[in-house]
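Note to self: user wants both folds in one dump. Writing first protein now.
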Amino acid sequence: MSALLQVNGLRVQYGAIEAVKGVDFSLDEGKITTLLGANGAGKSTTLLALSGLLRASAGTILFDGSDLRGQPAHRIVARGLVQVAEGREILTTLTVRENLMLGAYRRNASQESAADLEMLLQLFPRLRDRLDGAAGNLSGGEQQMLAIGRALMARPRLLLLDEPSMGLAPLLVQDIFHTLRQLNGRGLTIFLVEQNVRQALKIADRAYVMENGKIVLSGPSAELFDNPKVIEAYLGA
């Protein structure tokens, strides 16, 4: 299995505070990998560094063999690495359609964009009747669907997701994770940061556990599901 993303010695600082302390990990193409850990462990900082929204102070970020470190965010998106941010970050005064089409802003092929939009509406049918309404009127779950849909309009090779289940009712959480399985089944590589450890381990192929800016555990998700440290810290003994 080839690694689509290979990260070595990644360090990220906020001023004098080092939030990510020399981590190494890899993401296999066509797989779901999850990054677990408590609040403040450095998970979101890691994603922001991968997508170019934070500058790494050291290390390499090899995406399909090319180093992304120091590249601006828009070029990283153009290469096929796209992030869905924590909190969704949709533009509430624009319509659902306008938000979705922003994801395709780098592409001029209107026929392709129309086909992609139809695919998304099949994936997220709740958005079809809301296409021309303000995105701010959507429920939390619908906003998360919109945020994922907007990212998919960029045709990513690697999708980064930061806490997609945050603030959602249990049934909507199930819907979101079911959709992630569908997308992965179509070949999309996914890197998932998620507080819902049980759900994340159920859908992921591999998992990393982060504490205080360092990777402290890694392995196949099934193994981590049975790991006593993971059970005690995250799953409830």
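First done. Writing the second protein, which came from a different request thread.
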Amino acid sequence: MKEYEKRGYLLENFRLFHLRSEGGARTDLHYHEFCKLILLLSGQGSYYIDGQHYLLCPGDIVLVGSQSLHKPELSDAAPYERIILYISPEYLQRQSTADCDLRSVFSGEKGHVLRLNEERKQKIFRMAVQLERDLEGNVFGREIFSNAGLLRLLVEIGRNRENPETSGTSPVQPRSER
């Protein structure tokens, strides 16, 4: 059986990155001990998660659970810009309630990529940008505001996943790594 590389680490409850790359991204399959949320702002390509192959479009939301094997394959035809959140599974468990298990957002049960209509997508992307602003500097209440912002973002994504009118994307086809 092939061994896969564990990448990255997370010492806090969550961490946000806003990244832009000019070239395509190609990495080997790997996993993390944290959950990963990617909001694709620009770029094209695909993402492999737990043996499923998803074609990506700008505006897609990629949900990668803890321990999920995944890798991006992104085209170098366009800049690849994204907001990425690393989130501790323990934090998700502590913040969950009886009616809202935040870990389920990353379970993959309803797929790993969410593609929303323009109105819903803009709402979630505005929330992510506000969270990014809330994390800047060292202002009074920064931690409280950013925690609240992350929880609102995750609940909104979870509600969209549960809504039958919302469009998730289906995998293209299962892919063998051979």
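Dump finished. Worth passing along: The chain has three helices and eleven strands.
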